[in-house]
Specification:
Blueprint (H helix, E strand, L loop, with lengths): L9 E11 L2 E11 L4 E3 L10 E4 L1 E6 L7 E6 L4 E11 L2 E11 L7 E7 L7 E11 L4 E10 L4 E11 L1 H4 L7 E7 L5 E5 L2 E6 L10 E9 L4 E10 L13
Antiparallel strand pairs: 1-2, 3-17, 4-7, 5-6, 6-17, 7-16, 8-13, 8-17, 9-10, 9-16, 10-11, 11-12, 13-14, 14-15
Length: 246
């Protein structure tokens, strides 16, 4: 039997009674409906959860994270580990615990990115928004990328950038929590370790609507990270990079 989950979060009971030849039997099944769009603890095989990777090796490490974590190693510049969506509308919010394991050079980066779908055959649109850190130096930047379909040109626009060695400088295997969101007003919001770190409304002035096509990690060559407890919401919840019980 396939049951369609109710729209509202909660615990539901499904009762089924079968009558045959004057006898009957009743069975009960419990269904728990959560308010999140997606969750992965990376403690069981995740290859069927919609993840895709490019220029990235993916492994499981039982000794990292809460009860194990996924280990990601970029084999080329701009490796990607992301989950595809069927053009989920905003608001969209994602949160993950992550730790940098290796970062050889000053210009190596680790980033959380949200990618957008092309809407109504637009010839110019925003393809992604990223919060990028450079663990070796502690630098960071927030950017969005546009694509001109007619010319094939892409452009990376810096929204803001800075240097924060206290937060983003490389501390081997030290887990931190980051949350990246696009709210209903198209604000790009970043929380880090339970505090709002960055907010910008620049995306609201670039295009009218955004549909999320993919979200996940981008890593530079030879950067290695661990990731655990990844949440995604599309119901208006804005993740605040605080510990979540599930």
């Amino acid at each position: 039997n396939v049951w369609k989950a109710p729209n509202e979060a909660g615990t539901y009971e499904i009762w089924c009674t079968v009558k045959c030849g004057g006898k009957k039997e009743t069975r009960r099944s419990k269904m728990i409906v959560l308010d999140e769009l997606f969750y992965s603890n990376f403690e069981t095989p995740y290859y069927n959860e919609g993840w895709s990777n490019a220029s990235m090796t993916v492994a499981f490490d039982a000794n990292k994270g809460t009860n194990g974590a996924v280990k990601l190693t970029s084999t080329k510049a701009d490796g990607r580990f992301a989950r595809s969506w069927e053009n989920v509308s905003i608001p969209f919010s994602t949160q993950v615990d992550y730790a940098i394991n290796a970062c050889p050079a000053d210009n190596n980066f680790a980033e959380i990115r949200i990618e957008f779908a092309r809407i109504n055959n637009a010839t110019f649109y925003v393809t992604k928004v990223c919060f990028t850190t450079y663990p070796k130096t502690g630098a960071w930047k927030a950017t969005y990328t546009t694509t001109d379909v007619t010319t094939g040109e892409t452009a990376d626009i810096i929204i803001d950038e800075g240097l924060d060695t206290a937060n983003f400088k490389f501390k081997k295997d030290a887990f931190k929590t980051i949350a990246v969101s696009i709210d209903a007003n198209k604000k790009f919001i970043v929380y880090y370790d339970g505090k709002k770190y960055f907010e910008s409304n620049v995306l609201a002035g670039v295009q009218d609507q955004y549909y999320v096509s993919r979200s996940g990690f981008g890593l530079d060559n030879k950067v290695v990270i661990f990731a655990d407890n990844l949440f995604v919401f599309d119901n208006g919840t804005i993740c605040t990079a605080e510990p979540r019980e599930r």
